[in-house]
Design goal:
22-stranded antiparallel β-barrel, 49% strand, single chain, mainly beta
């Protein structure tokens, strides 16, 4: 420990000294094979030095270790890409945003393409995140297309960027075996800052009437400690790769098991993958076969259990001392049918035991890619890509009748299932020719794509123990078809000047309204690059890379989740409570669904200007990009005038502008035969603003979003013209001379003498000022060390746990409810949900990952190795936010499942 501490102390000084001296211009490694890096660009690939768009490429050697979801592999690794965990539950996955959000009600996620197969944006029942069904250990590279000139080739779903995932492939040669195993323990970050038992007794005694003071119990229970646990996990993978008589192959098997830090929560994934890549006809026909299958078992914690653990009275015991309600303490009401207080917070420990929410999900993803180089014209290739993505999820929620959660209806059972079948067929020609007389390389692509999404699910009802049913969800059988024609031309002149242009024409059945008027959209893109370092006047200047890039493009968005028929008149069966009476009988009827026959593509036009640089033999390299996006005809779930089939509908009503800058730099201060040290930093800033919503609406019009706990239908955020999307709409709190907030007193912002809704204002938003990433790795002889960290500045979060606390918690509905630690100081008589006091600065610095490993070489035989490594994840967070975790997707903290701290030890064998 003493030596480790010394290293930590001298490392910052060494970094400073290294950055002050000129990077070495001569590598100590004399025998190094130079390999031209190739980047996927969609329906093709290109040398990284020739890229004209804004594209980031991340390979397996740079992934974050210990990741259980693909998104975690690249968190903090590249500018312009924000990756936030959906929750800390295992299998919950991540929310990925590229250069901010591109839509208000349409999908905000990038298009993800796995081995050439575009993925479905919507999930599958029983899985928190469909991407978590892919084993991260099978992934080789991520290529992230960020600007429209790069993404336009994917047109119809590329407004939010495109991520191309390539999985690992076999290579010809002798058999290679890789086996890895990882054991981990996860713990919570901390507890929500509510009162302990003694402080709560004091709070109630000082602020409640005697009848409520009498309800205080004798116990000292930390309810959050009662629901959290230390959770163990394991991740095991084995792969076999090589070649048999000219048939390169790779076969892999994986098993991941992770228990959640909330009791009863678990995730288990079994995966298998196969890749075959043979060549035929004297290498004129290349075949690439990919098949991946996964099976996951999930158990989810009871809904609301984290919030209940936050609020339950800490002076009450876990158990009641009798057998009623499963033996757990609950708030009683002798006047109710069950003897329970239905308004009171449920015992969270009892809730965990009462609810069994389980699911099983199967997924099979496969495709075959054929690349035929014509015998009579070898420069012309014909490509076929046929893929099939099948997933099925089924599960059930069972509630025990002995507990409060189920006693009112004598228990319940709610089974569900869903099946998805997605088919793909793509064919395209690719012609490449180097015209030496013109010093020009030509790369032409033209193709056609068909993709079919088919979703089915049976009727879902909750069967109650009292013989009744509830919560009916109608059966689903829906289909979406996308047709596309696309082309691209790339001209590289004298290895200095590059011109690229693409166009895609897409048709979506989502916009079928009985005619073909709105089906089709055209999405062009053009970009240019100048490799300045190739000019004669910069030869031998020490500049290895200096490339100027500029691009323009238009992309589309038609994604509305599972709403496949928003433009066409459709009908759905009525549900219980919406039946039609004939005589004394009630009958289910078909009811028309709301639709918009004028709905069409949401489009985003992007301009991008970038520069790639590298010098000192590329020991220092990076890129800087500035961009501007204009989203038009935004798909918005908007309120509409009375008289239609609903009070809201999907409309093309909004525009939004985004401006930003991003950059990255990588510095290799040491590189010799024994030691390599690499340091990377990236930064992103962008600003989005809504510029138009519903036409003819006045300046006060807004669309409320952002559900909160407390009250009925309350929302804390809004979209409004002139403001950032998801801005918080709140009252401005008034304070006394000592800085104490005054109960129910807000600023009369319009000066009319009355404080009401017209005095609410837009204060902060979910959009941060800057996103920063830092990564470093050191290899010394057989040792390797790495860490990755992130910072988000100008991040604001609505603290719903604090806003939901007041004196009312000790004086309402015949039970006691715990409060946030600030409540005794604020002394609010009622919850002040809309005070800007609860919009907290949640800027943070997080050390995501630290790992240290040692590689034993030639352990079992020559060429074999054994790597032993330890790893820490979510090591610490520095923030002013008063909640547990400042990084919350959606920026509303109301019972959020916190990210765990993870301690891991792993072994990796290679034979």
């Amino acid at each position: 420990m003493k030596n480790f501490t010394t290293v930590l102390k001298i490392a910052p000084a060494f970094l400073l000294a290294s950055s002050m001296i000129h990077a070495q211009t001569k590598d100590s490694i004399t025998k190094e094979k130079k390999i031209e890096e190739v980047v996927l660009i969609g329906y093709g690939k290109q040398k990284k030095t020739d890229i004209t768009g804004s594209i980031s490429s991340i390979s397996a050697k740079d992934f974050n270790g210990g990741s259980t979801s693909p998104g975690q592999l690249i968190q903090g690794k590249t500018p312009g890409v924000s990756i936030v965990g959906n929750s800390g539950a295992p299998g919950a996955g991540t929310a990925i945003r590229i250069r901010g959000i591109g839509s208000l009600s349409g999908s905000q996620s990038p298009l993800i393409v796995i081995d050439g197969v575009p993925q479905d944006f919507s999930g599958i029942s029983g899985a928190s995140d469909p991407l978590s069904l892919i084993n991260p250990n099978d992934i080789q590279t991520f290529d992230i297309l960020k600007d429209a000139s790069a993404t336009a080739i994917y047109g119809n779903r590329a407004s939010n960027g495109v991520i191309l995932i390539t999985t690992k492939q076999g290579t010809a040669g002798k058999l290679k075996i890789n086996f890895s195993t990882l054991a981990s323990v996860s713990t919570k970050m901390g507890n929500v800052d509510v009162l302990d038992a003694d402080a709560f007794r004091s709070f109630v005694s000082q602020n409640a009437i005697p009848s409520y003071v009498a309800r205080l119990g004798p116990a000292n229970t930390n309810w959050q400690d009662q629901i959290y646990q230390k959770a163990w996990g394991t991740d095991n993978n084995v792969s076999f790769s090589g070649g048999v008589k000219g048939l390169p192959y790779r076969v892999s098997l994986g098993y991941n098991e992770q228990n959640g830090i909330v009791k009863t929560n678990s995730f288990r994934r079994t995966s298998a993958a196969l890749n075959l890549s043979p060549k035929f006809f004297d290498n004129h026909l290349s075949v690439n076969v990919n098949a991946k299958g996964t099976f996951t078992d999930n158990r989810f914690p009871a809904t609301g259990v984290i919030a209940n653990a936050t609020y339950f009275d800490p002076t009450q015991p876990v158990y009641s001392g009798n057998s009623n309600y499963g033996g757990y303490y609950e708030w009683l009401d002798t006047a109710s049918n069950t003897g329970l207080n239905v308004n009171a917070t449920a015992n969270p420990v009892a809730q965990l035991n009462a609810v069994r929410d389980v699911s099983s999900v199967w997924r099979a993803l496969g495709n075959i890619q054929l690349d035929y180089k014509l015998h009579f014209l070898p420069d012309l290739h014909f490509n076929v890509n046929a893929g099939y993505d099948y997933s099925k999820g089924e599960g059930a929620i069972t509630i025990d009748p002995a507990y409060k959660s189920g006693i009112g209806v004598l228990g319940s059972y709610r089974p569900y299932s869903m099946e998805k079948k997605n088919k793909l067929l793509e064919t395209y020609f690719n012609y490449t020719k180097n015209i030496t007389s013109l010093k020009t390389n030509v790369d032409l692509t033209a193709g056609y794509a068909y993709q079919d999404f088919h979703t089915t699910a049976p009727l879902v009802v909750t069967n109650q123990g009292n013989g009744q049913t509830a919560g009916q969800v109608n059966a689903v059988d829906r289909k979406l078809v996308l047709l596309s024609f696309y082309g691209r031309a790339i001209f590289t002149i004298a290895n200095k000047y590059i011109i690229s242009g693409s166009i895609r024409r897409d048709g979506s059945s989502r916009f079928y309204n009985g005619t073909r008027d709105n089906l089709w959209g055209n999405f062009p893109g053009v970009s240019v690059a100048w490799k300045i370092n190739e000019e004669e006047f910069l030869k031998n200047s020490g500049l290895n890379t200096l490339k100027l890039r500029a691009g323009w493009g238009k992309t589309g968005n038609n994604e509305l989740g599972d709403n496949y028929y928003p433009s066409f008149a459709s009908y759905s069966p009525s549900v219980p409570g919406a039946q039609y009476q004939f005589g004394s009988q009630y009958y289910y009827m078909l009811r028309p669904d709301i639709y918009n026959p004028n709905l069409t593509w949401e489009t985003t036009t992007t301009q991008n200007l970038g520069i790639d640089y590298g010098f000192a033999k590329n020991r220092i390299y990076g890129a800087i990009d500035v961009f501007k996006k204009k989203a038009e005809k935004l798909l918005v779930d908007s309120p509409i005038a009375a008289g239609d089939l609903s009070n809201h509908n999907i409309l093309n009503v909004g525009n939004m502008d985004t401006k930003g800058i991003e950059g990255s730099i990588t510095f290799v201060p040491i590189k010799n035969e024994r030691t390599t040290w690499e340091v990377s930093f990236n930064a992103t800033h962008y600003n989005s603003k809504v510029t138009n919503l519903v036409s003819a609406a006045n300046d006060s019009f807004f669309i409320p979003v952002g559900d909160i706990t407390g009250g009925v239908g309350n929302k804390i955020q809004a979209h409004a013209v002139g403001y950032q999307p998801y801005s918080f709409l709140v009252y401005q709190q008034v304070y006394d001379n000592n800085g104490k907030p005054l109960d129910g007193i807000f600023v009369d912002r319009n000066g009319d003498g009355v404080t009401n809704a017209s005095d609410m204002y837009y204060y902060k938003s979910t959009q941060p000022d800057a996103i920063l990433g830092f990564n470093t790795k050191v290899n010394y002889k057989n040792w390797d060390f790495g860490l990755s960290a992130r910072a988000v500045l100008g991040n604001y979060v609505y603290n719903n746990a604090a806003s939901n606390s007041s004196l009312q918690s000790a004086s309402t509905n015949s039970y006691l409810q715990n409060v946030y630690s600030s409540s005794p100081q604020y002394q609010f008589s009622l919850p002040r949900y809309f005070s800007d006091l609860f919009i907290e600065n949640a800027s943070f610095f997080r050390l995501d990952n630290v790992n240290l490993g040692y590689n034993f070489k030639d352990v079992f035989s020559k060429g074999s190795s054994l790597k032993v490594y330890g790893m820490l994840q979510n090591v610490f967070v520095i923030t002013k936010y008063s909640g547990v975790d400042p990084e919350i997707f959606g920026n509303i903290d109301n019972g959020y499942y916190q990210m765990p701290k993870v301690y891991s030890l792993g072994l990796n064998f290679q034979f």
